[in-house]
Amino acid sequence: MTRKKKGPLRTELARRLREQPQTATMELLVPDILGILRGKRIRRSSFEKTCDDGFAFCAGTTLMSSLGDVMPGMIGDGDGDPDIPCMLVPGSITPVPWAQRPTLQALFRMYEASGEPFFADSRAVLERALAPLRSMGLTVVMATELEFYLLDARAPKPTRKVSQVPGMDRPQPGPQVYIPDDLWDIEAVLDDLYDACSAQGIPADTATSEFAPAQFEINLAHIDDPVLACDHAVLLKRAVKAVAKKHGLIACFMAKPFAEDSGNGLHIHMSLVDRNGKNYFSHGRDKLASPPFSARLRHAVGGLLKTMPDSMALFAPNGNSYRRLLPECFAPVDLNWGVNHRAVAVRIPVSDANNLRFEHRTAGADANPYLVAAAIAAGVHHGLRNKIDPGKMVTEGAAVKLKTRIPDRWDAAINKFVRSKVLPGYLGKRFCHYYALNRRGEERQFHNTVSPTDFDWYLRAV
Fold this sequence. Notes:
The chain is α+β, with helices and mostly antiparallel strands. Helix content is 33%, strand content 18%. The protein is built from twelve helices and 16 strands. It has helices spanning 8-19, 47-53, 122-135, 180-185, 187-200, 226-246, 295-315, 369-386, 410-418, 423-427, 429-447, 452-458, and strands spanning 25-31, 37-43, 55-58, 83-88, 94-95, 103-110, 139-152, 164-165, 170-171, 204-209, 215-220, 249-252, 266-273, 337-339, 346-348, 358-360. Strands 7, 10, 11, 12, 13, 14, 15 and 16 form an eight-stranded mixed beta sheet that branches. Strands 1, 2, 3, 4, 5 and 6 form a six-stranded mixed beta sheet that branches. It has a two-stranded antiparallel ribbon with strand order 8-9. The longest helix has 21 residues, at 226-246.
């Protein structure tokens, strides 16, 4: 009998167990189509077998609603909820610093019975969308920025944990944008968060106090692996929530938790690098790294703006998402672009020839980062292939008269997604069909829910 050769996952597991010899539990996690992590826990006796052979798990896991419910017409609805093969993602076995006992976690991915990646696995959708750019010899370099609110976990209703005016026991009025004092007030949270990110290999970088009281942003470092960058984004959200809970707080990534204040965005910075390691946007025939920029950059932006209406169901996947899409609230509503301007959908930050990139500002923090990145990659390639003109650029410092030219209602966005002629070719026809069916079902359920607002507006008056 020959002894089975240890694979890279076993080597990775052994290293983690040397670091945490008392570990008895591992969480296995997969993002669903909304970016919500789902999965299960296994005990130490199953660690090695899971690393070597994988395991089976419910195929419908990635296709549930935001309530974790099976949607009509989805896998799991009346078909016995079949299992499919799953394997751990190499490099994803990390400690869980906030666990009471030594615990590990790992991401996993799902496969068809044929061995092909499962059509509804977010990682597979992104890989499929990246393939045309990779066939051009281009590498995507990207980073995410996530905004969130910190709420008081002890309050009877969602209440922001706002900094106090010293000596007055009163909340600080005004947004106090970028004030360092707000970061000092959550220093213990940030210290624990950075420690957790370091332990889990999440490249958390800049932290800022944002455009509303108790709103913050954490930036992740640029890397040349978009799938790993999205892994970092979903794991950062998990870490922020866990650390906040430890400190008696709730981290809220809803797109628009408070009507009167800024929403939470998921901003993605992206550039392309060619086979020679050069920035593709600034090293073509027209080497323009400043306005009006190279044709390559303009065409990529043109594709992003052209596909943006079709992609809104991905950028704004939930009912609450559309409360964020309002003019003058630093949330894009128009098909526009510009340099160093935060009122546009696609912003070209201050950069040079080596790091020329765009910032895609449309998605909310509630969106699935893999699917957002997939739609962006599709738009970039579509623009490059068809040499799409992005239209007139908004210049730095210019006043912008906003027109709402993207779907700002949930049903309209789903309709636009369903009619798209471009996205199925990048994301997969089967995925697009199931995604639309899933979001349509939840949209109807959300619309048909009677809320306290119904009684506030109509009970006495009508």
